[in-house]
């Protein structure tokens, strides 16, 4: 048993003797002397970071080991002319970034921004989002917003509200059709059928045909255009319009004269 423990201890001693536990800043100082180059170090680089270095490493690998060690700690080695400087990676350092919103507003993405753990706000005058976050996070947010910030789904609907004298249209249908034909308005039979009985047929005719007929009917006194709004309907947004107009109705007196006499 003693022999086994002794052998294991000897192997461990040999293995650990091949490596050296070095403070990262001391390692940078060593490389600076070896290559006779200046290294500027960010004050945020901790003095407590150590690396385990093989004592037999080759000189050409010194800087690669340093780059790897710095990268693991969120720093980077940058060459500038004849010297190097070590700084915290921009991708891990919070900065202020701006994203112009075209169709979105802050309420549309507020929950997402909270999920991404960013400090954010909106410049109302230009609808510009500002963020305080690191570069990698900003890039992800910018890509996500770009995919969402597109023109909203919408449709435009033309509505014509008419007061129609249907009895006159039916009684004067022949004269009306003749007049419309003289005005070179196409599809009139179909449209007149729709006007006199709107629920008996579909409305597959062009807007130009409809507008031409409505204009003619209005000019000849068959109809009266109450309103002609154009509505824009957007996805997930309520749409409404109000028309205030006095609706005429007949008033009068009804007199019931009973000439019968009941006698007991």
Automatic annotation (TrEMBL):
GO terms for biological process: protein secretion. GO terms for cellular component: membrane; type II protein secretion system complex. The keyword Signal applies. It comes from uncultured Campylobacterales bacterium. Residues 18-84 form the GspD-like N0 domain. Pfam families: type_II_gspD_N0. PANTHER family: PROBABLE GENERAL SECRETION PATHWAY PROTEIN D, SECRETIN GSPD-RELATED. Gene3D superfamilies: 3.30.1370.120. This is Type II secretion system protein D. It is found in: Membrane. Keywords: Membrane, Signal.
């Amino acid at each position: 048993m003693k022999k086994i423990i002794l052998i294991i201890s000897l192997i461990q001693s040999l293995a650990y003797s091949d490596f050296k536990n070095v403070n990262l800043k001391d390692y940078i100082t060593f490389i600076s002397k070896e290559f006779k180059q200046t290294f500027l170090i960010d004050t945020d680089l901790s003095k407590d970071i150590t690396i385990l270095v093989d004592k037999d490493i080759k000189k050409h690998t010194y800087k690669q080991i340093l780059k790897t060690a710095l990268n693991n700690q969120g720093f980077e080695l940058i060459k500038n002319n004849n010297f190097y400087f070590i700084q915290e990676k921009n991708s891990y350092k919070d900065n202020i970034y701006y994203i112009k919103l075209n169709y979105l507003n802050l309420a549309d993405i507020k929950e997402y921004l909270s999920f991404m753990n960013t400090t954010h706000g909106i410049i109302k005058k230009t609808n510009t989002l500002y963020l305080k976050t690191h570069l990698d996070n900003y890039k992800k947010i910018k890509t996500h917003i770009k995919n969402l910030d597109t023109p909203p789904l919408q449709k435009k609907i033309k509505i014509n509200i008419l007061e129609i004298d249907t009895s006159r249209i039916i009684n004067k249908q022949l004269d009306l059709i003749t007049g419309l034909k003289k005005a070179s308005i196409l599809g009139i039979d179909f449209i007149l059928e729709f006007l006199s009985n709107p629920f008996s047929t579909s409305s597959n005719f062009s807007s130009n045909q409809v507008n031409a007929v409505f204009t003619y009917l209005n000019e000849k006194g068959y109809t009266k255009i109450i309103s002609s709004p154009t509505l824009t309907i957007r996805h997930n947004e309520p749409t409404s319009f109000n028309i205030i107009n006095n609706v005429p109705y007949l008033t009068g007196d009804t007199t019931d004269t009973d000439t019968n006499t009941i006698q007991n």
